[in-house]
Amino acid sequence: MNRTLLEDEAKRLEEDLLWSMVANFQIATYWRVLHWIVGIPSVIIAAATGVAAVKAGNPDLIAILAVVSAVFGALSTFMNPQRSAREFHNSGVRCSALRGKLRRYWQIDVARAELSDETLRKSLEKLAEEKSHLMETTPHTGGLAYWMAHRSIAKGHNKHLVDSANN
């Protein structure tokens, strides 16, 4: 077996994981921001409703503020942005860890002459199965995440200094 084929396949798996990792981290950030976008107005409107109720100046305004506050509170509960952010962040961390294993595989293990081609192939199969399982358990990211990941990767946000110095 040609070790270059093993190395190339490991690099493909690593690249797939780069996209998944970045997409998950980007969507986690999106959910964190959404938490603040929904949460802050909810708190402000609830406080304004309380002040308006205490002053009892305009019952229509109190009713409108109460409904708007309830809508923001319900949105925050329904969407649960904190949970979503945590899920996507954890998925990104798992992708990063497996990506590191793959990088070490193709940069270190494939170069070791004492390892047989069959041993290397079995190791690669195990890593590929681990990736498949990870993708099954990772939440779906969608087109927005892909766009944000593409932008981040194109800007070089995920490159290591050592890699830049060697190229």
Q: What does this entry show, briefly?
A:
The mean pLDDT is 88.
Features:
single chain, mainly alpha, 86% helix
Walkthrough of the structure:
The chain has 167 residues and is mostly helical. The chain has one domain. 86% of the residues lie in helices and 0% in strands. The chain has six helices and no strands. Helix 1 runs antiparallel to helix 2 and helix 3 runs antiparallel to helix 4. The model has no long low-confidence stretch (mean pLDDT 88).
State the helical fraction.
Answer: over 70%
Bulk shape = elongated
Rg measurement, Å: 24 Å
- Summarize model confidence as the mean pLDDT: 88
Which structural category fits the helices and strands? Answer: mainly alpha
DSSP strand tally: 0
Number of helices: 6
List the quaternary state of the chains: single chain
Strand content: under 5%
How many structurally independent domains? Answer: 1
- Span from first to last CA? 28 Å
The stretches of 5 or more residues where confidence is low (pLDDT under 50) are none
N to C succession of SSEs: HHHHHH
Q: Quick one: biggest sheet?
A: none
What is the strand and helix layout of this fold?
Blueprint: H1 3-55, H2 59-79, H3 81-109, H4 117-137, H5 142-154, H6 161-166
Helix pairs in contact: 1-2, 1-3, 1-4, 1-5, 3-4
